Amino acid sequence: MRAVIAEDSVLLRVGVVKVLEMAGVEVVAEVGDGEALLAAVEEHRPDIAVVDVRMPPGFTDEGVRAALVIRQQWPQTAVLLLSQYVEERYAADLLSANTSSIGYLLKQRVADVEGFVGALRRVAAGGTALDPQVVSQLLVRRHSGPLDRLTLREREVLELMAGGRSNAGIAGQLVVSESAVAKHINNIFAKLDLPKADADHRRVLAVLSFLGVA
């Protein structure tokens, strides 16, 4: 796997590079701002870009705007955003434009090397990875309308779906059978009034409803 790192903090950038290299990921470029990130992606066409949300010159949403450009111009490059704080609207912005190969984690997750690398690989493979704190905050703020129909267990399952977990992963987290998870997911689809379609598409629609972008 080939990666580009965009982070203005030199200390954190070095740390992320070391973590990825130890995991066998080839870091082809390290940059500190959005413009340099876009140039690096155009030059190297990496499998994934790890991007700080706030970068020079304004330290607002430069990383998010660069990520949106990457998803539009180089869709084969996955994007994993890193943020110091929970800013869920950025995750919603990205997911409303593209529902695959997207991740949003708090920077503190980098310290959990196994979890961070696992999320990175999941995103690079076409999946999603949302930070548990982001998902929990979204659950509180987006809990309205059809979501009110869900039971507590169904909301737990949807929360884990939004975090990118597979049925097996959800079953392991909740200590239930995969058949029970499948039943909960079918109930979620029905209660959110999602039309019958392929399972993957309905999962995406369910997560988008959860995020409030569908």
TrEMBL record:
Pfam families: GerE (PF00196), Response_reg (PF00072)
Domain Response regulatory: start-end pairs: 2-122
Keyword DNA-binding listed: yes
This protein's record includes keyword Heme: no
Keywords in alphabetical order: DNA-binding, Phosphoprotein, Transcription, Transcription regulation
Protein name (record): Response regulator
Domain HTH luxR-type as annotated: residue spans: 143-214
SUPFAM superfamilies: CheY-like
InterPro entries: CheY-like_superfamily (IPR011006), NreC/VraR/RcsB-like_REC (IPR058245), Sig_transdc_resp-reg_receiver (IPR001789), Tscrpt_reg_LuxR_C (IPR000792), WalR-like (IPR039420)
Modified residues (4-aspartylphosphate): 52
